[in-house]
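hey m, so remember when u said the tokens were messed up on ur end? i reran from scratch. heres the input so u can diff it against urs
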Amino acid sequence: MNQELNDFHSLISKGLELQQIDNTNKRPKKCVINIESNILFCGKMKNSSTAEAYNITDFKEAIPKDDDEIIMNFGDKNLILVVSSNRVRNYLVSMFNRLFNNQ
């Protein structure tokens, strides 16, 4: 793994605050994503007991959507994230695909 991927993995391990599209009312809500033991968690805060868990081995791809959304496809379920710009979106899509497809 190169230095850029190592740095990205370190960032995600510490926790990255984004917005998640809530499937019930389709409105963004705060989401901190972090990785521990090949599980990506998405919750209101790092290590939240109510965080949703996504197994990285089920990861298919990160797909850009609109200018500010990312669809994280985990086979039978998706995680939709909202970011601040299309530039951030493009970077995160690229890094998620590179990192998780190298697992």
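this time it looks ok to me. The longest helix spans residues 86-100. if urs says something different then somethings off w ur setup not the seq
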